[in-house]
Design a protein that fits this description.
GO terms for molecular function: pyridoxal phosphate binding; transaminase activity. The protein folds into two domains: 1-33, no CATH class; 46-283, Type I PLP-dependent aspartate aminotransferase-like (Major domain) (Aspartate Aminotransferase, domain 2, 3-Layer(aba) Sandwich). The protein has twelve helices and seven strands. The protein has helices spanning 5-8, 14-27, 46-57, 70-84, 99-110, 125-133, 153-159, 182-194, 223-226, 253-264, 272-283, 287-308, and strands at residues 93-96, 116-121, 137-142, 164-170, 198-202, 229-234, 247-250. Helix 3 packs across helix 11 (272-283) and helix 7 (153-159) runs parallel beside helix 8. The chain is globular.
Length: 332
């Protein structure tokens, strides 16, 4: 059997591979605590589950528009305006089968083969493979514990070439928990404008910030900047809805149309029932977010404290998300 070079060029998701291994071990009766997939261990809030049940009973079980239902797009518009201080039109919104599909569609829409994509490292495993699948080239920019694992504008400038097309920025960050501040984002934004570079900003962990950290959307820094940004988010992490597979993107209409075109030939449309449930997630009561964040905060403090008690291991306390990224270089 001949496998395409495109598929040979990408690696399987190590996150999912480790998750599958942990599940297999559990099925064998072994006691396993899996630190693989980034998933809240809470149930989806009851009001969201009830909305899904209502949608099933009402027979909302057919195809929807490829880019998602208007009701959910309007809820997303209101959320972006209220939480992120960014205003869009429904034609600038797409709903997909998870934020991962939004990322995939966006990279394929923006990048040509040979284009370079700037990627702060360490990073989530799927960014690299999606870039390679598009025929583009990931250009890693290392971040360091001493700088809170944050990218600087100077580092970005150093890596820009005539082939640079895109920067992917993830804040709060997986796996480091880094959260970018306004001045840091402004400097990066000015550089992107100067060199005409697009930016995909993955904000899936935006509700999970701690202490004095505040999430800021880079697209909120002005209309000119907004025209170069594709903001990606979803309901998976904030509402414990990872299995519902609903993500969304907001950006320039031309790019959103391109993403919708790809989606129309792949998954057709997002799950109809999950879309209705997501309307309730965004429009309904938000108490569950605070409760989950409080629990994550307690775990964060405990985990980092215990890691730092281990000789030759150091761990920066993460400002956001629900990961700890210990430095084990001294024992390797």
């Amino acid at each position: 059997m001949t496998i395409s070079e495109r598929v040979k060029n990408i690696n399987p998701s190590q996150t999912l591979a480790i998750t599958a291994q942990a599940l297999k071990m559990k099925e064998e009766g072994k006691k396993v605590i899996s630190f693989a997939a980034g998933e809240p261990d809470f149930d989806t809030p009851k009001n969201i589950r009830e909305k899904a049940i209502s949608a099933i009973r009402e027979g909302f079980s057919h195809y929807t528009a490829s880019s998602g239902i208007i009701e959910l797009k309007e809820a997303i518009l209101e959320k972006l305006k209220k939480d992120n201080e960014i205003e869009y039109k429904t034609s600038e919104i797409i709903i997909s089968t998870g934020a991962k599909q939004c990322l995939f569609n966006a990279i394929l829409t923006i990048c040509n083969p040979g284009d370079e994509v700037l990627l702060p490292a360490p990073c989530w495993v799927s960014y690299t493979e999606q870039i390679k699948f598009a025929g583009a080239v990931p250009i890693f920019i290392n971040t360091y514990q001493e700088e809170d694992f944050k990218l600087s504008a100077a580092q970005v400038k150093e890596k820009i070439t005539s082939r640079t097309k895109l920067l992917i920025l993830n804040s709060p960050n997986n796996p480091t928990g880094a959260v970018y501040e306004q001045e840091e984002l402004k400097k990066i934004a000015l550089l992107l404008l100067k060199y005409n570079i697009y930016c995909i900003c993955d904000e899936i962990y935006e509700k999970l910030v701690y202490d004095d950290a505040k999430h800021l959307s880079i697209a909120s820094l002005g209309d000119e900047m907004k025209g170069k940004i594709i903001t990606i988010n979803g309901v998976s992490k904030s509402y414990a809805m990872t299995g519902w597979r609903i993500g969304y993107a907001a950006g320039p209409e031309e790019i959103i149309k391109g993403m919708s075109k790809i989606q129309g030939h792949s998954t057709s449309n997002p799950n109809s029932i999950a879309q209705k449930a997501s309307v309730e997630a965004l429009n309904g009561k938000q108490d569950a977010i605070g409760e989950m964040r409080k629990a994550f905060d307690e775990r964060r403090k405990y985990m980092v404290e215990r890691l730092n008690e281990i000789e030759e291991i150091s761990c920066l306390i993460p400002a956001g998300a629900f990961y700890a990224f210990p430095n084990v270089s001294k024992i390797l």
